[in-house]
Amino acid sequence: MSGRKLLLFIIAITAWASLIAQLVLSFGYSTTDTTETIVRFFSFFTVLTNTLVAIFASVQLVSKPNQQGFFANANTQTAITLYITIVGLVFNLVLRSLWKEGGLQALLNDLLHSVVPLLMIFYWWKYVDGKKATYKSIPFWLIYPAVYAIYTLLRGPFATWYPYPFINVIELGYPIVLRNSAILVLVFLFFSFFFVFLGKKKPV
């Protein structure tokens, strides 16, 4: 097995195992019915993005060398790396201090928010041809987080539940949530440009 395939295998196993374990724990913590528990589980940007990483790594793992496709595209790979990087940054800089759980939950938090992001960043740096990532693709990269934000803000009032405290309209009100959302937009924009810039400078 090549170094690239081995890294993809590690990423896929780590992401899938962590997601499955987190789903099992979610049922243990949940005070809602099965359907709502599952919906809430997949309402976390962390879960959606780690799932995207897991699918990407799995598809690339079984793909033939030089095979073309959606996940083989440098822009797609850079976008996925961008998303999981934001997952890691937001958790470690903003949310980590709010989590008090220990044991398995603490381990899963580290796997989903630190280990998988770092593995994906390393994969991008070593194996993705960053020179093919383009600035004109950035608006398309922002569609996924934009759709997620719209979905979350629209569903929140009906579910009386928000996945993250900084977008909890019930607790913070719309002015603060919109401000926080604007900050996140700027973060996504900054790192989008940063990854394209860095990709054009790296040797691969």
What does this structure look like?
The structure is a single chain. The chain is mainly α and 204 residues long. The chain has one domain. Helix 1 runs antiparallel to helix 3, helix 3 packs antiparallel against helix 4 and helix 4 runs antiparallel to helix 5. The protein is globular and about 45 Å long. It starts with a helix and ends with a helix. The model has no long low-confidence stretch (mean pLDDT 93). InterPro entries: Pr6Pr-like. This is Pr6Pr family membrane protein.
Structural class: mainly alpha
User: Care to count the β-strands?
Assistant: 0
Q: Provide the succession of SSEs.
A: HHHHHHHHH
Give the low-confidence spans. Answer: none
Overall 3D shape = globular
Percent helix range: over 70%
Q: How much is the average pLDDT? A: 93
Number of helices: 9
Largest sheet: none
Strand % is under 5%
Evaluate the radius of gyration.
17 Å
**How many separate domains?**
1
End-to-end separation in angstroms reads 20 Å
Put the structure in a nutshell.
This protein is an all-alpha fold and 204 residues long.
Q: What order do the helices and strands come in, and which of them pair?
A:
Elements: H1 3-29, H2 34-41, H3 45-62, H4 74-95, H5 103-127, H6 138-141, H7 143-159, H8 169-172, H9 174-201
Helix pairs in contact: 1-3, 1-5, 3-4, 3-5, 4-5, 4-9
Index terms:
single chain, 204 residues, mainly alpha, 9 helices
